[in-house]
Amino acid sequence: MVGVSDVPRTAQAPAAARTRVGRPLLSLALASMMDEVHAHSGAVYLLASGEPVLEMAVMAGLPRAFAAPWERVGLSAPIPVAEAVRERRLVWVGGEEEMARRYPRIAVVLPYPFALAALPVATDTKVHGAIFVTWPGSHPPELSDRERDHLSAACGRLAVRLERAAEESRPVFPEPDLLAGTAAGGAAGTLGTVEAARMVSRLPYGLCSLDLHGRIAFANAAAAELIGVPVSRLLGTQPWASVPWLNDPVYEDRYRAALISQQTTSFVALRPPGDWLSFRLYPSTTGLSVRISRARAVAEMSRTAPQGDGAPSRLVTISQVLSLAGALTEAAGVEDVVQLVADEIVPAVGGQALVMLASRAGRLHVLGHRGYPDPRVVERFDGLPLTEPTPGTQALNSGVPAFFDSRRELERLYPVRNATPDGFAAWAYLPLIASGRPVGTCVLAYAEPHPFPADERAVLTSLGGLIAQALERAMLYDAKHRLAHGLQEALLPHSLPALPGIHAAARYLPATQGMDIGGDFYDLVPSHGVASAVIGDVQGHNVTAAGLMGQIRTAVRAYTTVGQAPQDVMSSTNRLLIDLGSDLFASCLYLRLDPAHGRAVMARAGHPPPLLRRPDGRVRVLDLAGGPLLGIDGSATYPTTEVELAPGSVLVLYTDGLIESPGVDIEDALADLGRRLAEAGDLPLDALADELVGQGGAAQERIDDVALLLLRAR
Description:
This protein is of the alpha+beta class. The protein has four domains: 25-168, Beta-Lactamase; 201-294, Beta-Lactamase (2-Layer Sandwich), CATH 3.30.450.20; 332-483, GAF domain (Beta-Lactamase, 2-Layer Sandwich); 492-713, PPM-type phosphatase domain (Phosphatase 2c, domain 1).
């Protein structure tokens, strides 16, 4: 078995011979660990040299095909082994429901009851890889202390051995997977004695024995008669491959479910033209026993028989596509798509680099790339006319994928590539077609020559379709947000004017739900030798709210410029909002500032009260008289309140998004804002603004916009 080489470093044996000598270090460690905790499958991953990628080195208990989507995984992938390495801890998943909640991509591909533990293989100074082990669905939902201790100790021992091997320059190689040995074909070899075979042959129902790979190692005469295929043609084959009417991934799925969950499973299938058969699968860690009988109780079922005239449908391929499709659904913008393809798809298909291309105005544009040591090699293609004869433009124009298994083949068809070497040796150019039109090209690059057999080309082409749909959504998402941000920037002040006696700073944060655009606004308006400040909040965070906000802000500036008093500005704006016939209301706070005389006159329309920090550091909430929200009552009045504004004082005007959050009492939030203002009030005003919106800015989910306007009297 391939393992850690024990050949002295000075040995002159050929490299190929040296790699076949040594102890099966990984296999022995994995088998011992599984035996200690009574796990029924597991795998060891090693970190790839020079790449943030985990590569499966050996698997035990189940065929490697079950874990095909995760043979190579990026360290950033949201799966247990990658998480165990990133966080240097044991990751435990206690069952099917927890797997679906925490790791939906795995649950989509393996929707069976089983428990899993993943651990890093690491010393104090270095991570070498990771291990996962699984148990049947009957395992308790919690990992016992004994199991946890055994697993941690075993991973620690393996890490020390790998560390020692690295120090002694003894390479570690992948090893053959550990599966139960396949029984010899024929009844006597399978069941142990000729008499046992005779007994089975006399039973009135069919019996088959399947190894862990799903291959038939034994079938009695009744099974052959029921299935309609001679025993000689069944032995050594998988039933869904050798029996045309069982050529359906659903039936292979039942075999996978039985092995992973170690629970009895069953299904019924229609043998043309009208015979329904029942298959019951009894699993163990060495394979499955299958009982076949007639299913007379379901004879009336009308399910269409699977078609068997095509090539076998491989569930592993479907699993890979499902897993990667799940990953792509999490991408929002174009950069997210590029990152997910680089982290999830490129490692899974064995590639080393990625370029994502799109067309705009008749030219090629690079949306993103990963894995190229010199980015200029990729960026020189940005802006290339689509008429240029390159593989990227050809794939995008024709919609036909192109595969080049060597540099010689690529340069033979596209001699221009001689002048632009990128250091790679094989390429797959996948046209990205969504809604019937090309949206771009995905280029996968390989460090070594790479043949592309027909089944791999089919998988890559299917992935191209999924990437195209994700990219189309992402481009629409980015366009929507560019529009929203542009509109928001146009409606809010680009900068605050310099005013005598007043320093000002402002911040705006959109809600994370919706279009990242809202109805919160602020402004600072110089007029007639004094200054006026306003802050307000129109209901909602959408385009309608933003448009109405722009009208209100313009009205306030106009009424201020003509010299109206604060109470009149509010009343005029209120009547305007009613005249516009909008169904939305707005809160507003308006101030007339007179720093020369140390005072400010304020009018309030249903807006949260401002905070005032005095020069001595004390903070108080200003209890202002006020009227109703703007847009409710055309005859409403808005009384004013005069507030002392001594030099060094700081006024904090804000919208309710700054202090409102789910599960937090509004008074507690306001008290916390006052405490932070008292502690940080002597900071420069921009730093103080950042401090006050710090918690809201870091929030992953803001249900409302946040506007903040700070005014300091000099």
